[in-house]
From TrEMBL:
It holds the Pfam family RT_RNaseH_2. Residues 5-84 form the Reverse transcriptase/retrotransposon-derived protein RNase H-like domain. It comes from Mucuna pruriens. InterPro entries: DNA/RNA_pol_sf, RT_RNaseH_2. The lineage of its organism: Eukaryota, Viridiplantae, Streptophyta, Embryophyta, Tracheophyta. It comes from the Eukaryota. This is Reverse transcriptase/retrotransposon-derived protein RNase H-like domain-containing protein.
Length: 153
């Protein structure tokens, strides 16, 4: 009898999940995006959000990715740049980057860049990214969780 009750409860949970509207929302034109980013040695996680008219943040996009063996050897700055290029939504919006480090300051303020860093400067110049120091805990915590549990390619 207990097993039937457990099955029914599980069925009700699945049914409720399927009837609930999706968590992700489409972007709102001309409003900035907020990117919470967490970069680890082997993986990354990010949450892209946008505020509505009432200033409540809604999730646009989640990403959790394990770096290839080659990219795991990149310095943190370059792993961060790899991640920023993955998010296509950022091409059409100003994006506030919330992260532990500001890769843009190093890339765009350094006078003489060589090799891959010069490549990243060119690649990221088409994005309108503004760095904001990491003060918001909720979005950062979710990005951190995604980074610690990456999806395999």
């Amino acid at each position: 009898m207990e097993s039937n009750q457990e099955c029914q409860e599980a069925f009700e949970k699945v049914k409720q999940y399927l009837e609930t509207p999706p968590v992700l929302i489409p972007t709102i034109p001309r409003k900035p995006l907020i990117l919470y980013l967490s970069i680890l040695e082997e993986s990354m996680g990010c949450v892209l959000r946008q505020r509505d008219a009432s200033r409540k943040e809604h999730v646009i996009y989640y990403l959790s990715k394990k770096f290839t063996n080659c990219k795991q050897r990149y310095p943190t700055l370059e792993r961060t740049c790899c991640t920023l290029r993955l998010i296509q939504y950022m091409l059409a919006h100003t994006t506030w980057l919330i992260a532990k480090m500001d890769p843009l300051k190093y890339i765009f303020e350094k006078l003489a860049l060589t090799g891959r860093i010069a490549h990243w400067q060119t690649a990221l110049s088409k994005y309108d990214i503004i760095y904001k120091s990491q003060k918001a805990i909720k979005g950062s915590a979710l990005a951190e969780k995604l980074a610690h549990h990456p999806l395999e390619n």
